[in-house]
Amino acid sequence: MKARIIRIAVASVLAIAVSAGIAWWQVQNASSTVAGATRSAVPIGGPFTMTDSDGKTVTDADYRGKYLLVYFGYTYCPDVCPTELGAMTQALDQLGRQADKVQPLFVSVDPERDTVAHLKDYVGLFHPRLIGLTGTAEQVRDTARAYRVYYAKAPQKDGKPDEYLMDHSSFIYLMGPDGGFLGVYPAGTSADRIAQDLGTRIAG
């Protein structure tokens, strides 16, 4: 029992350290900061092929012409994912008609449990325009790598292989209408700040 507790503690510390390292990397490579959206000099984003929450195969090209708010998480996430998706939802509500130029995306890092049907039910709890994306383990891996996203399965509960948590970085990525990376909103960025920044970009 003691060994198990130590393993869990080490895994948790490692996950926190990796997430902190990603945040540090983002800040160190930032070229400018606009209302909380930090731009990076390192390429982020790129082509992807996944399955949306309606069961349709989609690529990054399907969302050209809109600003994208992209969040990586999973439906069984107990806290940070609902919080960040809630902030995205509130920001879109504040934008009013401007929100028509924004497409929110929720990319699952847990394709093992996040089936299309389950993902559709989950995103429906937030915003009617929020689209969930899942895919094969390889598709999720490739998309996460393109966005510099860290994720890993945490230690499972004894005898319950389906009950596990996913460690993952927590940023809302902002992509431009041309598909280019514009910045990230770190975890905890308020809906007001996101809406203000997006509104300025859309109006400008």
Q: Can you describe this structure in just a few lines?
A:
The protein contains 5 helices and 11 strands. By secondary structure, the chain is an alpha+beta fold.
Question: Can you characterise this structure?
Answer:
- By secondary structure, the chain is of the alpha+beta class.
- It has one domain (2-203): Glutaredoxin (3-Layer(aba) Sandwich), CATH 3.40.30.10.
- The protein has five helices and eleven strands, in the order H-E-E-E-E-E-H-E-H-E-H-E-E-E-E-H.
- Helix 2 packs across helix 5.
- Residues 1-36 have low confidence and may be disordered.
Keywords for this structure?
36% helix, alpha+beta, globular, 204 residues, two-stranded antiparallel ribbon, 25% strand, Glutaredoxin, 5 helices, 7-stranded mixed β-sheet
Q: Provide the CATH architecture.
A: 3-Layer(aba) Sandwich
Strand order of the largest sheet: 4-3-7-6-5-10-11
The total tally of domains equals 1
Q: What percentage of amino acids are in beta strands? A: 25-35%
Mean pLDDT: 84
Helix content: 25-40%
Biggest β-sheet description: 7 strands, mixed
**CATH fold label:** Glutaredoxin
Cα separation of the termini: 59 Å
Overall 3D form: globular
Q: What's the CATH class, please?
A: Alpha Beta
Radius of gyration: 17 Å
Count of helical regions: 5
Q: How many E strands? A: 11
User: From N to C, what is the helix and strand string?
Assistant: HEEEEEHEHEHEEEEH
User: What is the CATH homology-level superfamily?
Assistant: Glutaredoxin
Structural class: alpha+beta
* Unreliable runs: 1-36
